[in-house]
Sequence to fold (238 residues):
Amino acid sequence: MERLDKVLSNLGYGTRKEIKQIVKKGLVEVDGIVVKDNGMQIDPEKSKIIINGEEIYYRKYIYLLMNKPQGVVSATFDNYDETVIDLLYTEHQVFNPFPVGRLDKDTVGLLLLTNDGELNHRLISPKWHVDKVYFAKINKKVTEKDVKAFEKGVILDDGYKCRSAKLEILEADDCESKVYVTIQEGKFHQVKRMFESVDKKVTYLQRIKFGPLNLDETLEEGEYRELTEEEIALLRQD
Fold:
């Protein structure tokens, strides 16, 4: 059981003081009865709550899929740059979601956000072997030698040996290559540093898949949507 004003505040309907005024005006009903006490105890998952004639639906967790744009940082707060949280509507910000892992500031594509800490831990923990697939443009010709090096596990500039990664060549010439890269880790600037270890540079990077979920191509960069129940179930599967 939780206080009514706390539940409504968590759902973005105002501060507790503002909710007290809404209740005072007789605009809130719980299970068909007009509420007089904003501090009444309710079961938010079972009670039928109506505000100003509109039924509201309680959710403890929120799950979002964003097509992250360039120039935005994967953080909940930053003193200098716009964050992915700044791109959310207030109705979603009130849940205090956070990015699942991170994408570099200049990397675009699929980013998940949630306030479900347990699922977040599972998705970013290396022991669960969650694939993350990227489309990348490289400034030189990518060869089969590079494919084998990635499969073996390249060594980064700090001496860290990466886990085996899949490198698929889509196009390759002396000026530019286009590839898919699949990794199960999330080290700082990892894909870029992996290519630097084979003397090449990433000029464009886009995440197109995270675990079982693909980037929603109907989303423009900077847009997002809530995950469906089916998508959430896929993320929870062993």
